[in-house]
């Protein structure tokens, strides 16, 4: 279960009253997710999701909530944070930061086909275009400095095979980041964790429409290409092997390019960025596996999945920087 902080009806009602959203009609803890405590909140004023943030701080959250607000105002299908009379979107519950955002309709598409990948690709590119005038800045907190620190802490705990892979990939990624080509990649505020379980689809089977994307709490300023690579590594692979499925991958990229064509450098660096994206999630999963939080009641995600994805991407990627 993923309710680390219990929230009662009185807590929820107090927040709804502050936000002018009327009487509470339903409150239910959400089991999915491993980062935060989440609740479905139904009220006179609409259907919402209440999140109590377990690891993120009051300082970090304005960026995430501001990004969701910015994208929602531009018509992108993302949860819109509820705002009080003073313009606040960030509140406190039991001493922890909390926010209420609109609830998306639909459900996850956990076995996406070409049709779903096209919709995701197009929406991702629209998100990338929409942040050109987003004023807040926060780096990707799972970027290179975090990867280096996490790799150093993990290395003594890994098998010889894992350690060799990690050392070699870190070396490659440091070279990549220092290269002139990488430095010319366009950047902006990106989602950075847009896996298939962070999107909703609704409609009849075979004709589902993307109803929205959510969970912006790993967002940060990074290259748009990294964001695209995260999606390709999750939406367009054969899950058991980590192999990239050509039809879904090319459909996702082609749909992306209808909204935001990639430059020649972006095309060239995409395989290397898919390695970066695989490394980022291999590291976070290894970190959760070897250093679980005390209150963690869940089985952490399997790190070996992203080790397989990384090995697959390394077999594909060429090294020209
Ligand atoms: N705005 C939303 N609209 C509809 N459902 C949502 C929304 N936000 C969250 N959910 C539901 O709550 C579940 C848990 O949310 P989420 O995936 O963000 O968990 P988390 O613990 O915050 O993060 P993580 O995915 O990183 O573990 C989702 O799978 C989804 O079903
Ligand atoms: N998407 C991450 C979980 C954190 O959101 C993973 O699959 O490892």
Automatic annotation (TrEMBL):
Pathway per the UniProt entry: Amino-acid biosynthesis; L-threonine biosynthesis; L-threonine from L-aspartate: step 4/5
Gene3D superfamilies listed in its UniProt record: 3.90.1200.10, Phosphorylase Kinase, domain 1
Residues in Aminoglycoside phosphotransferase domain copies: 27-261
E.C. code: 2.7.1.39
Database matches in CDD domains: HomoserineK_II (cd05153)
Chemical reaction(s) catalysed: L-homoserine + ATP = O-phospho-L-homoserine + ADP + H(+)
UniProt-listed InterPro entries: Aminoglycoside_PTrfase, Homoserine_kinase_II, Kinase-like_dom_sf, Pseudomonas-type_ThrB
Any one biological process term the GO annotation gives: threonine biosynthetic process
Pfam families linked: APH (PF01636)
Record keywords, A-Z: Amino-acid biosynthesis, ATP-binding, Kinase, Nucleotide-binding, Threonine biosynthesis, Transferase
Enzyme's top EC category: transferase
GO molecular function: ATP binding; homoserine kinase activity
Family of the protein in this entry: Belongs to the pseudomonas-type ThrB family.
Protein name in UniProt: Homoserine kinase
Native source species: Inhella crocodyli
Gene: thrB
């Amino acid at each position: 279960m993923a309710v680390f902080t219990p929230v009662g009806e009185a807590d929820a009602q107090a927040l709804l009253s502050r936000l002018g959203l009327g009487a509470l009609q339903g409150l239910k803890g959400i089991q999915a997710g491993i980062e935060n405590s989440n609740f479905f909140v139904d009220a006179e004023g609409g259907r919402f999701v209440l999140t109590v943030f377990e690891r993120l701080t009051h300082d970090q959250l304005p960026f995430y909530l501001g990004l969701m607000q910015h994208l929602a105002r531009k018509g992108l299908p993302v949860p819109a944070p509820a705002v009080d009379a003073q313009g606040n979107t960030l509140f406190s519950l039991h001493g922890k930061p909390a926010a209420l955002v609109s609830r998306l309709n639909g459900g996850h598409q956990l076995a996406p086909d070409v049709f779903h990948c096209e919709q995701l690709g197009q929406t991702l590119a629209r998100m990338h275009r929409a942040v050109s005038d987003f004023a807040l800045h926060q780096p990707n907190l799972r970027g290179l400095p975090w990867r280096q620190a996490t790799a150093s802490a993990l290395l003594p705990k890994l098998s010889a095979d894992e350690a060799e892979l990690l050392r070699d990939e870190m070396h490659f990624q440091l070279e990549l980041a220092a290269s002139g080509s990488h430095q010319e990649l366009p950047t902006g505020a990106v989602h950075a964790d847009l896996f298939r379980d962070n999107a909703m689809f609704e409609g009849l089977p075979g004709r589902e429409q993307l109803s929205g994307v959510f969970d912006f709490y790993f967002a940060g300023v990074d290259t748009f290409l990294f964001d695209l690579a995260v999606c390709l590594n999750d939406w367009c692979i054969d899950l058991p092997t980590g192999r990239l499925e050509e039809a879904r991958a090319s459909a996702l990229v082609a749909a992306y390019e209808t909204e935001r064509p990639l430059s020649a450098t972006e095309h060239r660096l995409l395989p290397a960025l898919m390695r970066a994206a695989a490394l980022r999630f291999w590291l976070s999963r290894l970190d959760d596996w070897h250093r679980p939080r005390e209150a963690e009641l869940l089985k952490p995600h399997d790190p070996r999945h992203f080790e397989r994805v990384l090995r697959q991407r390394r077999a594909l990627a060429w090294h020209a920087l």
